[in-house]
Amino acid sequence: MNTKRKREDMEIVWQTPANPPERHDYVFRNGIRYVKPYYFEFISHVKNRWAGKTIVDLFSEEFKGRPRDYYESAVKSGRIQVDGQKVPVSYVVQSSQKISHFLHRHEPPVMSWDVEILCEEPDVLTVCKPASVPVHPCGQYRKNTVVGILQAEYGLAPLFPVHRLDRLVSGLLILARSASRADLFRQQIESGAVQKRYIARVIGVFPDTQQVVNANINYNAREGRSTVEVGDDQGNSTASLKGKAACTKFTRISTNGKHSIVLCEPVTGRTHQIRVHLQYTGHPIANDMLYLSEFVSGRSAEGLSADRAAAKSCSPPEPISLKNGISDTANDSNEDFSIDPMCTNCPNLAPKGYEGNEEGLWLHCVKYSGPGWLYALCPGKFLEFCKFAIGEAPIRCFGHFYDAWSTLNLDLWEGLALDTFRAQLLYEQVFAAILEQFMDVVCVWQR
């Protein structure tokens, strides 16, 4: 719901999670989707480890995205409240108290690729998730999520994600349209009745025989990355390991001597499972900066920013400012925004540290199947994988198409060129051939 307050002679409408995203909330510039800054009430409750701290110390230590003097000003002005009341900067919080932080919210930008609907059924929706877009609200992301975009652009709500895809992973995403249908899917996934298939491009020549990795995974939420845990070489018990049991099957599809295309079939579903298991094999995803660092040194992070936590842009683009107009597209609202005097991100659209120039991870979800159901990407929705499998160079000689896809020879693909129409046809045919040959799926061509 919206609440109104008077702040420095202007009326502010505070949004809460109950306010749905709307189409006019977005701004598109240079291939990037921004969210127009908006006023928002963040609500949290004091954790046991926070109790006994002053309100300013709590925010300064736990939420380091803003300087301490901002939090002092926010407390004094009432933008940070405890149990709905203004408090002094020396106020000591107690466990379970409600803390409200009223702020001018700038969401991180994402790539502006569409969230394309693949299949719409009464109780299930499948989409092609673009890389860089989180599945559901988390952290600083709320409207710039798959769930938020689908609600804003198609009026689809509520939606319940059936499985997870990392923010930088693209491909098939299944969403239930009711909590009961989502629970059924989750029960099947947890019981091991669901088969999952992804395709990745990895470093090096992957072994030509199927590799099965059984290695515990321990996820460190503070660092945002997983590590593999295994027993010792003497075959001692793994009972003392802290990580969760995890298993992934890998099958090489193609290699050019430098990179390999690998079919990935996770049996379990741990955070970053495919990524960290591929690293464990010695063949990490070729642009995965979070798990590639141990294998490649002296490289530039620019253009390979597969994870913000592990890469910093060498030359970030000029920030887009609210002062210069909010958008350059005809469909955007012409509404101007006042600069919030307390906001640490104004006058820019994006929050500090987010340039929006990330590259999608070379990992693509292509198929999920279970008892009596199967969902897969259809031709024309596989552009991301084909681009990294073929290379960015266009295709020149359509006559070489058969040799290219039948052998999946990366060198041959990169040496071809083709006009846009034939390239799109090639993408569709390559995708259909891959699914039919390597995944035993008969695709329905949508023309």
- SS content category: alpha+beta
Unreliable parts: 3-10, 296-335, 379-428, 434-447
Main sheet makeup: 10 strands, mixed
Q: How many strand segments?
A: 20
**Percentage of helical residues?**
10-25%
Distance N to C terminus: 43 Å
Rg over alpha carbons: 24 Å
Per the principal axes of the C-alpha atoms, what is the gross shape?
Answer: globular
Strand residue percentage: 15-25%
The arrangement of helices and strands along the chain is EEEEEHHEEEEEHEEHEEEEEEHHEEHHHH
Total of helices: 10
Q: How much is the average pLDDT? A: 76
What does this entry look like structurally?
This protein is α+β, with helices and mostly antiparallel strands. The chain is 20% helix and 25% strand. The strands form five sheets. Strands 9, 10, 11, 12, 13, 14, 17, 18, 19 and 20 form a ten-stranded mixed beta sheet that branches. The longest helix is centred in the C-terminal third of the chain and has 19 residues, at 420-438. The protein is globular.
Please provide a brief summary of the model.
The protein is α+β, with helices and mostly antiparallel strands. The protein has helices at 55-62, 68-77, 146-154, 179-190, 273-281, 289-292, 383-390, 401-407, 410-414, 420-438; strands at residues 3-7, 10-14, 26-29, 32-35, 38-45, 80-82, 98-105, 110-111, 116-120, 124-129, 160-161, 170-176, 195-203, 211-214, 216-220, 225-229, 247-255, 259-266, 363-370, 373-376.
